[in-house]
Amino acid sequence: MPLLPCPSLTRTTRSPRIAAMLALALTSGCATMPTPRNVSGAQYQPTQRLQETLGTDRCLTPQLPAALGPLTAEPAEDLAALPDVLGPGDRLRLDVSGDRDVLSHDYVIAANGSLTINGIGPVLAAGRSSADVSDEVRSKLVATGLIRDIVNNIRLVATERAGVAVSVEGAVFEPGVIIAGDRSADARATTVANPALGDFNNGRSLATAIRAAGGLRPDAALDAVYLVRGNRYARIDLSPVLGGVEGSDGTGGLPVDPQLARGDRIIIPSKGCFQLKLVRPSPVTAPGIRVYMSNLSRPAASNAASAIGRDATSLPYGTRFLQGLIAANCIGGSALNAGRSAVLISRNPVNGHSVVIARKVEALVRDADRDDVDPYLMPGDAIACYDSAAMTFVDAVGVAGNLLGPAVLAKNLKP
């Protein structure tokens, strides 16, 4: 919408002070929101820039992380085929032939990784398979004379697998240590009340851990995810999770998704470019995002009046700026106020720089090239809606009237 012309103040006014107040009020309404300035390299997405910048979105082939150089590489399939290892918090069931309550009990691995069984003291269990721990327990029970040396006279199985602490590093939104597979108190109570010989905790998988760390960023190297365990590592290609999504290789299928152990490291390198195929809900990306919204444009006097609540600010991952403006009730209305402006406040997750961009709302709605300048919303972004220039001018006229009224009245009351 074109800006309304500023009113002329050439008419002779009896009071210079009144004229000055009128000029200040009216000309303030003619000002438009200045274009936000950002430091060089702050823009994360191509759609955050109004002009094309050559060479800024070239994808790079990530190198092997330096920390993995001294370690031994293994095929991802071999690492995934290894038996699940025990960890602190895992619940085990020990059954001894001919025994009911002395040795046969449920046991929980302690925080230091040990398993304490009556008569034989602590046994290191963390980082080992159930079969390995069972063999050691049997040997110690036989050595102490608590059981006879009879084949298959004890059984030790995991009945509940607790969450494990793993490190997720690199191109995720919330890198750090997370507890993969941590269950709620209600879920654990249900497992204890309904015991079974064996347990599968799908939250201890590689993909679930990545999602718990905020999900992959759009610059992540999906085909070069590294899982480090001890002195070994495997490079895992997670591209099949995208299936036939535009921009993927289209292979589909299921990726290698190994179960995790306590102390595992997950390293996701960056490709240094924005990949549109990763801006969607998937097993390794965020299912949804929370966006902060403010809409104080007329006629709303508060965000509550703009119907901005928790549901409006929770959006699916892959939502664009224009869709977020609709959720903020920043689009539509009278022709006088439809020409609003809006800003998007974001942060470059790679270098940490803040990014503020401004767009004309009606231009996003009407222009055919809107997709080139309509950014995707990222977790923690903020949206603000501003009144149109016409409504700003109307407010300025109102301010001028409020200033002129008392001044004219006071002048007329003078003797």
UniProtKB/TrEMBL annotation:
Give residue ranges for domain Polysaccharide export protein N-terminal.
85-155
Q: GO molecular-function annotation terms?
A: polysaccharide transmembrane transporter activity
Query: Matching InterPro entries, A to Z?
Result: Poly_export (IPR049712), Poly_export_N (IPR003715)
Q: Does the keyword Phosphoprotein apply?
A: no
Alphabetically ordered keywords of this record:
Signal
One family name in Pfam for this protein? Poly_export
Q: What is this protein called?
A: Polysaccharide export protein N-terminal domain-containing protein
